[in-house]
Amino acid sequence: MTGLVGKFSLSANFKTAMLIRISLIVAILAALGAGVVNFVVVKNKIGALTDDRNTQRADKITAQTDLASTKKELTKTQGDLKQTQTELTDANAARDKALATAAAQTTRADDLSDKLTKATQERDDAQNSLAAYKATGKSPEDIGNLVTSLKNTQDALNVANGEKMVLLRTVTRLTNELAKYEGEDPTVKLRADLKGKVLVVDPKWDFVVLNIGDNEGVIQDGELLVSRDGKLVAKVIVRTVEKDRSIANIVPGWKLGEVFEGDEVVPAHPAS
Predict the structure, then answer these.
(1) Using CA atoms, how far apart are residues 174 and 178, in angstroms rounded to an integer?
(2) Cβ atoms of 249 and 259 closer than 8 Å
(3) Integer distance in angstroms from the first to the last C-alpha of the chain?
(4) Would you kindly state where each structural domain of the chain is located, as residue ranges?
(5) Which fold has domain 188-267?
(6) What is the pTM of this model?
(7) What average pLDDT values come out for the chain (272 residues) when binned by 10 residues?
(8) For residue 209, which of 236, 260, 246 has the smallest C-alpha distance?
(9) Best CA proximity match to 260, nearest among 231, 237, 227
(10) By the 8 A CB rule, do 145 and 136 touch?
């Protein structure tokens, strides 16, 4: 009985040991299976990462190649642009020069045309004068004498006109003085075409200096109207007459505005 118990005990221990071994083997096999599975998964992931890295590396190389090509094209484009700008600047300069040359040529052509027209007119006048000269039947000496005589006559006429103006001014002045003495209208009459301007104004003493005098026919006590832009400003009466200017006082009650240098004056009582 004791032997059976011992056998049974040994058999149970053996079974237990076998179960433990089997469990260990199963665990080892399971671990090996899990390791295999993990290895396969990791291997696949490594392969995928390697492929992705290779793809990124290829893309990077492609991008770098494209960037280098783009930079090269950009450099070439910038060079072409710079050359184009230089050519455009040269073209503009050439155009401006051509325009300036054309303008100068046009001006020269116009000047030559004017000179040609003037020369043609002078030629025609000379031909007409020559024809007229030939038609007179006079000699050059006779023509010269006529020209001299005409000049002398013109000079004499100018002298006579000057003397006439002096006499007229004298007659006017004497007539005005005689009218005063005989009790007639004492108003001094001045030349109807007399015109002048105010040179100086003294607002304190109300007198002005005019740019007309005895040479223009101004007579003492003659009255003139002062105007600006067609509007009457004042009336003045001449007190002093010099050769080429005169001094006049502003008539009280006739100062309608301020008198300024440059205002125009005309006779208040023009001679008929």
Answers:
(1) 6
(2) no
(3) 191
(4) 1-137, 139-186, 188-267
(5) Thrombin, subunit H (2.40.10)
(6) 0.40
(7) 51 73 79 70 76 82 84 85 86 82 80 83 80 68 72 72 62 61 68 93 94 91 94 95 94 93 95 75
(8) 246
(9) 227
(10) no
